[in-house]
Design brief:
Order of helices and strands: EEHHHHH
Helix content: 40-55%
Oligomer: single chain
Distance between the termini: 73 Å
Shape: elongated
Length: about 120
C-alpha cells in the first residue's frame, strides 16, 4: 500500500540546472541542488540571486571537475557574506573564462598612444 511518504523509484531524483545565456545544461542530484540552493538563500537577500549563484557553483564544479558539495563546504568555511561570495565566485568563474571577459575587474586598460588616436568615443 502506497503512502504519501513512500518514494517512487520510477521518478528521476535529479534536477536540471540550466542557464540559457551561457548555454549551460546539467542534471544534478536533487539533494545536492537543495543543499547548495538553501545555503545561498540563507546568505543572499534575493531568491533570484541565490538561484544564479547555485547555477554558477554547479557550472564551476563541472568546469573544474570538482565535487559541488566540496566547493560548498569551502564557501561555508570562509564565512563570507553576500559581498564576499561575489568575490569568491568571481575568482572561480574567472578561472574558467576567457581573459578578455573577466568578472569583477575594475582597472581600465589604457591603449597605446598611437592606437588611442584611432579610437573614436
Amino acid at each position: 500500500m502506497d503512502t504519501v511518504n513512500s518514494i517512487n523509484s520510477n521518478i528521476d531524483l535529479t534536477v536540471r540546472v540550466f542557464d540559457q545565456f551561457y548555454n549551460f545544461d546539467q542534471a544534478v542530484p536533487a539533494n545536492e541542488y537543495d543543499a547548495v540552493n538553501s545555503y545561498f538563500e540563507s546568505v543572499m537577500t534575493k531568491k533570484d540571486a541565490a538561484k544564479n549563484f547555485t547555477v554558477a557553483l554547479f557550472r564551476i564544479a563541472q568546469d573544474t571537475n570538482a565535487n559541488p558539495l566540496t566547493l560548498l563546504q569551502q564557501l561555508q568555511e570562509s564565512g563570507a557574506d553576500e559581498i564576499g561570495l561575489n568575490l569568491v565566485m568571481a575568482y572561480y568563474l574567472n578561472g574558467t573564462r576567457s581573459p578578455s571577459t573577466l568578472l569583477g575587474v575594475n582597472s581600465v586598460s589604457t591603449p597605446n598612444a598611437f592606437v588611442a588616436r584611432n579610437i573614436k568615443v
